[in-house]
Amino acid sequence: RLPSGGMPDAAPRTVPRRPPRAGRVARLRRAGPWIALALALAATTALVVARRDDLAVLLRVDAATLLALLAMQFAYLVVQSGRFHVVLIRLADHGIGFGPWLRLFVLGRFLNLFLPQGGNVYRAVEAKRRFGIGYLSFVAAFLNAPWIAMVITFALGAGVIAVANPAAAVGPVPLWSGLAAGAAAIAAIPFLGALVLPLAPDRWRAAAWARDRLADMLRLTLDSLRDRRYLIRVTAWTTAAFVQASAMIWLAFAALGVPVGLAEAIAFYVLLQVATYVPITPGNLGVQELAFAGLSTGMGGGAVDGVAVSALVRVSGVVALLMASLPLGGAEAVRMARADARDGDVAGRPDPRERVG
Q: In this structure, what DSSP letter does residue 8 have?
């Protein structure tokens, strides 16, 4: 049939549907972190209820200590931002000033409080939109920054503890040797990935694409490790974070009346680094507290001491982040991040033709 305009009717559009199993897997993947969060919070609550009186010390922390912790959390934000900035300008295809990047970094951390991974997407989108930094270049820096930070942090912790307190241990394992092994294992991750990905069949387009991108990122990583000036700068920022955050952990324990030494403060800072970069639940809420409880027990302390310190560090960090981000446009950043997610303008979907660097 021809309509009044003389043109044949257009064929109805069909929208492809995902297979039912794929939809179930996607829903389970989205729900997984929240299920883990519920379980971790339940376990933490059970632990706290069993030793309710031990958390009463949180109410006795004096105002001067709280202000000192807030100041140290502000400083920690700046140091973390500086370390990421060094990696970003080394690996990205465009430059970005420290001031604009500090704003993006702080707002990204702020958004991650409300939208899991939303802050990371916001940083990538804004870096592309305002400074021309390609998504894959940003992803390369996003992966390299925590990788090199953890390698250096673990190595620094192993060296300092081996000299200052070699007898410190977590259960039967000497702490310095455990940290040294951790540094070696983390350093090997990208190289192991480069060995494993070529084993994937070429007919898997996703594996082939990932293999090519990893090869680009590995090339950039190896090139950066030959840059002495870059290594000096990133090591300096990481050392500053190591000293400052270890002191912050020590102060948190002291505020609760729990005496700890240098080795214990370093061990808890290393664990805090891992909890920051390896998210299991949103903000690793519950998981971090359980990890602190386990480390405290392993080092001969009380489990609730670890939970209390984690709570104090978490709350002071969130308060400092809110105080820093709201004047920088935190509410507007939330609106923009939601709009980007709604429009599909996300860094998780880069143009396959775009290359790193």
A: P
CA distances for 70 relative to 74, 75, 174, angstroms: 6, 9, 33
Q: What is the CA radius of gyration of the chain?
A: 23
Q: How many residues are there in the chain? A: 357
Residue written as tokens 């069993």?
Answer: 50
Query: Strands 173-174 and 169-170, how do they pair?
Result: antiparallel
3-state secondary structure of 88: helix
DSSP letter (8 states) at residue 224: H
Helix extents (H) in the chain:
20-50, 63-91, 98-112, 118-131, 135-164, 175-196, 205-225, 228-255, 262-277, 287-298, 303-325, 330-343
The proportion of the chain whose per-residue pLDDT surpasses 70, expressed as a percent, equals: 70
144 with 150: CB under 8 angstroms?
no
When the pLDDT of each residue in the chain is averaged and rounded to a whole number, the result is 77
Residue with tokens 């929240």: 34
b/e code 209-219 from CB counts within 10 Å (16+ = b): eebebbebbbe
- pTM score: 0.76
In angstroms, the CA 308 to CA 314 distance is 10
> H or E stretch including 221?
helix 205-225
- pLDDT higher than threshold 90 for residue 150: yes
